[in-house]
Amino acid sequence: MNVNELRSYFERLSTDRAAIRKRHSYYWNDITYFCDYFSHEDYSVLEIGCGTGELISSIRGKEKTGIDFSEGMIKVASDRFQDVDFKVMSAEDLQLDRSYDLVILSNLVGFTNDVQHVFEELKKVCHERTKIIVTYYNHFWEPILKFGEWIGLKKKTPVQNWLSRVEVENLLMLAGFDSYRSTKRQLIPVNIPLISWFCNKILAKLPVIRYFCINNYTFAKPIATQVPEQVQEKYSVSIVIPARNESGNIENAILRIPKFGKHQQIIFIEGNSTDDTWDMIQRVAEKYKDTHTILTGRQEGKGKNDAVKKGFAMATGDILMILDADLTMPPEDLPKFYNAMATNTGDFINGSRLVYPMEKEAMRFLNMLGNKFFSMLFTWLLEQPFKDTLCGTKVIFREDYYRLVSNRKFFGDFDPFGDFDLIFGAYKLNLRIVEVPIRYRERTYGDTNISRFYHGLILLKMSAFAARKIKFI
């Protein structure tokens, strides 16, 4: 079917689109809910192929734009939804003089003559950290939907592209985009009381069964084009160092952190130490005040998460980093984390201690088993390979951190370590999560503050809670 035939089809469809949408509201509402899940009140949002505007009007965002090549649909959308800027425009020729934080293409790629060209046009509306959500039918459902059309349960549609996940990801790659996550939803696209809920909320999340869901979702962002040598002065950095009973490591932290970034700020947060950690922090801050920007603080509460929050609240750098004061993650590796962020390789960088061989006493056996268990659990939860959930070094843009803070009520605030709080928050913001392998070292001073069994139970409880908020939605 050529473009004119498609245009004629959608113009006819615009007259009864609202009735069709209402009849199939269960199906469309799930797509809308899932896209909105990854948006934020602070995002600018664009939907390409918006039809009569139901999806884009329901997405959170400070500025929302919807485009479609059907004048009839845009007229209906403009009359119904006043908070969205609707425009008549073809996906093959975007004429918008701005970029967006989130771009959505919902069930569009099946009806375009040249999908790669449509993806290439997206560059006109993307900045380097724009996120793209592409939704499309699972190829498995083609005969089922054709049968539904034949018996009259579904309105007949033009012949469309039935693309697999691999094909969509390849087309995005050819157009200059990195596909960083894919998932599937909805086993039953109509509302059958209790049965649909159980199948779509529970069964659809399970291995093997999930591959029969009707809708595919692919998440993408522009491919990084800069190299580390080009971004050394691009961003300022704040390095937060929570310290409890780490007196012997404080000066080494200063001496071993390399210089990188436009400006570097080091923030020590001491919490409930029984040794002279606080006094040592004060001495070191005074000793190196002429060569380093050092801030110090003492936490009022308890736990690493509380210390990190206090440090991040004091930070002014563009990029926020956590460095554990035990220095088992070598400070010399911090530039790797900076480079991954500054080159736009990732939006949230997590250290991974489980790639390289460790020094003999770096991690106890039960801790190792716990980390591997949570690695498998998080790979399933976040739908991407995730090797080390509990590495203390995590890096995020400050503007994204404050968006994460505004979302914190969604998950709750009961993580004593802060690792899960940041990982789940980054996922909810649709950030590109990247792991940087590091060599995990033995402690040279002090003992671990982690209780394997007590804290392990807390982590398990948080994982179960997050599964309900991330997976079974």
Q: Assign the CATH class of the largest domain.
A: Alpha Beta
First and last CA, distance: 37 Å
CATH architecture of the largest domain: Alpha-Beta Complex
Spatial order of the strands in the main sheet? 3-2-1-4-5-7-6
Query: Which stretches are low in confidence, meaning pLDDT under 50 for 5 or more residues running?
Result: 13-17
Number of strands: 14
CATH topology of the largest domain: Spore Coat Polysaccharide Biosynthesis Protein SpsA, Chain A
What would you call the shape?
Answer: globular
User: What is the number of helical segments per DSSP (H or I, 4+ residues)?
Assistant: 17
**Pairing-aware structural class of the strands and helices?**
alpha/beta
Walk me through what this model shows:
Residues about 15 have low confidence and may be disordered. Strand 4 (about 100-105), helix 6 and strand 5 form a beta-alpha-beta unit. The chain folds into 2 domains: about 5-220, Rossmann fold (3-Layer(aba) Sandwich), CATH 3.40.50; about 230-470, Spore Coat Polysaccharide Biosynthesis Protein SpsA, Chain A (Alpha-Beta Complex). With about 475 residues, it is an alpha/beta fold. The chain is about 40% helix and about 20% strand. Helix 14 packs parallel to helix 17 (about 450-470). It starts with a helix and ends with a helix.
Please give the structural blueprint.
Layout: H1 3-14, H2 17-23, H3 25-37, E1 44-48, H4 54-58, E2 63-68, H5 71-80, E3 85-88, E4 100-106, H6 115-121, E5 126-137, H7 142-150, H8 165-174, E6 177-185, H9 195-201, E7 215-222, E8 237-243, H10 250-256, E9 264-270, H11 277-287, E10 293-298, H12 304-314, E11 319-322, H13 334-342, E12 348-352, H14 365-382, E13 394-397, H15 398-411, H16 419-428, E14 433-437, H17 452-470
